[in-house]
Structures are given as C-alpha cells and as structure tokens.
Amino acid sequence: MSRNGPLALIFHTIFVIVMVAPILVVCLVAFTPEGFLSLPTNGFSLRWFRAIANYPEFIHAFWVSLGLGALSSFVALLFAVPAALALARYRFRGRDALAALFLSPLMIPHVVLGIAFLRFFTSAGLGGSFAALIIAHVIIVFPFALRLTLAAATGMDLSVEMAAVSLGANGWTLFRRVTLPLILPGVISGWALAFIQSFDDLTMTVFLAAPGTETLPVRMFLYIQDNIDPLVTSVSACVIAITMTALILLDRFYGLDRVLAGKGDTGR
Amino acid sequence: MSTAADERNARAPWALTAPALMLFVGVLLIPLAMTVMLSFHDWGQYKGIEPVFILKNWHEIATDPYYAEMFWRTFRIAILTTLLTALLGAPEAYILNRMSGRWKSIFLLVILGPLLISVVARTLGWALLFGGNNGLVNKLLMSAGVIRSPIPFMFTETGMVVALAHVMMPFMVLSVWAALQRLDPQIENAAMSLGAGPVTIIRRIIMPQIMPGVLSGAIIVFSLSASAFATPAIIGGRRLKVAATLAYDEFLNTLNWPLGAAVATLLLVALVLIVVGSNALIERRYAEVFR
Question: Which residues form the signal peptide (chain A) (predicted)?
Fold first, then answer.
C-alpha cells in the first residue's frame, strides 16, 4: 500500500490537534488550583475533583445515564433483532416502508422527538418518570441497534441454518443455537453503539428529565447555563476518562472500527 | 397455487416485525401526530393551552420576520458546517485509510472517540479556548501581540459553525471511511501502472468511488446540524437562536407549547423534505454503487 506524502501528514497532524484540543483543554483546566477557569500554570490541584463530592447531583445523574443507556439499548435489541431478521430475509410488500419507519428516528430531529415525547408522556401521566425516559431512548437508539444487526443478518450464510434445519433444529433452538451466535458480533456492536447514543443524548432528554431523572449531559448542560466554573470541567474530565477507558477496552477486545462501521465479522 | 408453507412465508416477516411496528406506531407516530395537532391549538398567558383549531401560531411564524431570520440562520449554519466537515473530513479519512494498521487504529480511536464523549463537554472545550477575554487561545495570542482584541467566537455564527463541525466531524470521517473500505486498492495500483499521477488517481479513481460516502455523510451532518441543540445553546446563548433552541425556550421557559410545537413541526417537515429529496437524487445518480 502506498504511503502518505509529507503534505498529507501535515494536514493529518493539524486535523488531529484540532480534534483533540477542545477535549484536552477541558481535562487540563480541571486540574487548575485557582478558583476560576485557567490552565494549571501554578501546579496541579485536585480541588475541583474533590468538589464533585459536594454535588451528589452529578454522581446521581451519572448512574441514571448508565442505567438508562444499558437498559434502553437492551430493550431496543429485543425489538430490533426479529425485525432485522425479517428485513434481511424476506422480500415482502411494505418492506421498504417498514425499514424507512424503523430508521426514521435518525431523521427526526431530537428536539422534535423531545417535544413530542414531552407532550405524549405528560398527557399519559408519565411526565418526568424514568419509564418515560427508557421508552423515549428505546426509540432513538433503535435505528443503531437495527442497522448493525441487519448488516450481520444480511451477510449471514443461510446454508448453515439449512443444515441445522435438516438436522432437526427449528424455532427457538434454531435461533438460539445457530442464528444468534452467527449474528452476535452485529448484535453486540449494535448494543454498544446504541448505548453510546443514549449516554450522549442531551437534546431529547433535556425535555423529558425532571429532578431525580436528570441524566449526566442534562445536569452538565443546566449547570453550564448558570455558570461555567472549573467544577464542570472536572466532571467532564471524569466522563472523558471513563469513556476513554471503555473505548480502549472495546477497541482492544472487539475493534472500534467494527463497532462503529458495523462491519460485522469481516476485516481485521 | 398457494400452499400452507407459502402462506406461512408471507406471514413470517409481519410476525417478526409486529412488535417493533406496534412500538413505533404507539410511541412515535402518535406523539408526533399529537405535536402537529398541538401546533393548531391556542395559548394564552393566563388561560394556558386551549384545544381549539386555529392558525394563530402558523400565521405568526409566517408573518413575523423574526422566524424567517431564525430559520434562515439555522440552515445557513447547517450548510456551512456540512461543507467544512466534507472538505476536511473526506481527505482525512483517505489519509487515515492509507496508514499502516497500528497507526490507523490509534488515529481512528482519536478521531472517532469524541463521538462517545458528551457534546456538552466538547462544546465546553471550545468555550474555554475562545470564550471572550478569558479564552485560552485569545489570551495566548493577545499576550504574544498577534491580536489586540479577542477573536469573536462566543455568540457568533462562526463560533457555532466551528464548534458544530468539530462535533459532527466523526460522522463524516466514518461515512467516507466506510466507502473507502469497499474500494479495491488494486484499482489504484492499476491506474498507477497505466501511468496516472496522484492527482489523476484521486480525481478519477478515488473521488467518484467515495462520493456516495461523502454525500451520505453530508446528509447526516446537515440534518444533525440543522436540529442541533447543545452547541448552539452554549455558543450562541440567548442572543443567536436557532430552531432547536427557540423551540426549547417556548416549551420550558415561555411555556407557549403550541407555538413551540409549530416551530418544531416546521423544522421537521423542512428537514424531511430536504433529506428525502437529496437521498433520492443521490440514489439516482449513484444507482450502480448502491446496488
């Protein structure tokens, strides 16, 4: 394979610096010993990390986000896996319309979804509840769960299934012992991508969250609205550290390119 | 002649998709319909929402130039953001794809990793770098004597575009990168062996093949930017409102839900028309690539 020229490498270096700079600066400012936003030029301090302990709202919000992401992505898969199998294997009337409907949350602005869910759940008497958040997040992460599962199901070798059927497997056994293991890489990466989308969502959740069900992005956003001080940078630094760790682990054990590009079993 | 097996085959896809279909009808289509209906309701400071059918909100949006200006700003920002991500993201994806395995996966992690990190944290970074007199880059440049007054960034459209492009960049890189994976490197070598220079190879071999990736990335970036909330809310503040932040204010501050619903409905309809329209154009133009 041909190498990149010097111009390409200069472009690449600047590109990477610009991509990383805003994230790096948040992490650096978090270590400031001063009471205001500044780079830690006079030594590093952990005072703003200790300050998080005085704001249990942030810690509570973190657990809400984690639980919400894990649960809604799992529920989305329960709906998405059978739907993906149907879309991958059958050509039937209405198939394209169904696929478009299932992917539509990608196209509908999250602010519109937030408004629609706020109106809907308030009328249903579920306004501000965790259940409402779960249902809403299932809808927004569904396309991601579906897409990666669909990619795996489309690329699957059907003759393996036929062999299993000829050996007497059917129904649930066929799914659990043959189909699911074959599409599992797609299903897991679909879950991971869905989790990321749920964990990161602010726009829709900000309409639905009430005190007690505020997610971390919502809590951070509301905090920034009032004042930007080093506390929010130290919270952000913690979030960045945790997600980077998860990301590196995911990349080590699974391959980030596979999770994000949904390439299933191929590559690497 | 239809047998029992045929009939089961015809029913199977519907049985498998039924749970998801019911979920989508129950908790997506119905709430959306309720929102459209809400936009035709009346609202008053003291009487609240009145479930009558009037065109007051739509009339207000159509006649008050404030809304035209706000929507135009929203789409202007989205278009500029899309151009910026395409111009920088496509070459970067190409460079990334030519790197050797180890470096490729490290930089892929660095560039796609931000997708995982909260948009709030990423936008906060830009506010720290360029936020008025206290912005770190501004301070540095001013003390070095390069500039006299801070580069205007906060509460400007330029600031919003730059910060949004940073947030959206991974989507573009990912989309182009996926297109590059389908590309056979032997074609490049074949072109080279036939005497094509690097510029010709990029223009005649690479560009046509990754264009669908660039365009589908552009559609994603455009629709996400036009409806973005966090970045415009933090960078633009209350001074420079876009559709999403305006709808947020109507719902959670002014409490004029019907007007907010009308703004949201208009944003949705405009985006769906634009995205469906450009998708159809791309698919017709690149039919052979998608087949």
Answer: none
